[in-house]
Amino acid sequence: MNLILPVTPRSRRAPRRAVALAAALALAPAAAALVPAPAAAQAGVVKLATLVPEGSVWDKALREMGAQWSASTQGRVTLRVYPGGVAGDEPDVVRKMRIGQLQAAAVTTAGLAAIDPAFNVFNIPMFFGSYPELYATLDALEPVLRQRLEARGFVLLSWGHGGWVYFFTKSAVSSVDGLRRSKMFVWAGDDHMVQLWKSYGFQPVALAATDIMTGLQTGMIDAYPTTPLLGLTLQWYRQTPNMVGMGLAPLVGGLIMTKSAWAKIAEADRARILEACRRLEQRLEVEVPKQDTTAVAEMQKRGLTVHPVSGAAAAEFRATAEKFASGMTGAKVPAEVLALARRERDAFRARAGGAK
Fold first, then answer.
1. Please, what is the angle between helix 311-328 and helix 191-199, to 10°?
2. Which tens digits make up the pLDDT trace of 23-38?
3. What structural domains and CATH numbers belong to the chain?
4. How far is CA 128 from CA 255, 318, 346, in A?
5. Which residues does 159 contact at the CB level (< 8 Å), separation at least 6?
6. What pTM was estimated for this model as a whole?
7. Exposed e or buried b for every residue in 327-347, given b needs 16+ CB within 10 A?
8. Above pLDDT 70, what percent of the chain?
């Protein structure tokens, strides 16, 4: 597996993503119809919370998208962004959306899985080997995942892309046993995953994502999975100057809105908003992988050491990842969703000439 996975040209996904956008536009009135709305609905201000750092590529893209919302709807819909976790961790954000304090969020699969466990399919370690594999599988899963969100009161506006996740550690690690000796961050509130990590001999420490830096500084944790770009942006790598040179998983996210908020937006304005969201998704698909690669080089200049993983060590990582996949099936990932994902991924690999 390559250290930083290749950038996928946007044109390779454009046709199917255009179809997905058209489907979203077609479903939008039906989704909104499930929530009563005044005849002359006016959305006004949409409050969006996210963990993305203020000033980061994601934050800038969200704010530019918000400006497009306002301009294209002539001010009928405006976006107010709360970045950097000021509204709480992702499960907190989802809870605030459910009670109406927030209308939208840009979340990772941790937030999406707090709504529906099917999104945990993207958290299975080493399930995907490249961006093309991810995108091919995502296209097949998207209708199913949209429906599952809508059944729980949320609308998926677009996908978010955070890069590729690697392990960062305080001590040098290039094997599974080395990782087992580390105190590993896992997301608070997910006891099943905590127990799963423990069952395979690891030392998980459950924390809110907003507490990672504090955990590193106090010694509660000395390892965590994240993307190079986030590690650099948040300066976590200064506490953990080692990176395991084998990719773990893509950091997939989504831009979501509550059905009740979506219902207040006029149908014509929904189309304009979805178009702005599509442009955001396209931008992140192109920019984030490039910046991930640049981030590794920049951190290496500042003292980061990347530890290659190959041969028997790589095989052991993959074998351990397969155990996680088995342990997550059913309790964490619906079996039918995992089966669909595996089928589409394997079909892509066959078309591409074999698995990586």
1. 140
2. 444 444 444 444 343 3
3. 17-352 (3.40.190.170)
4. 22, 11, 10
5. 138, 252, 253, 254, 255, 281
6. 0.87
7. bbbeebbbeebbebbeebbee
8. 87
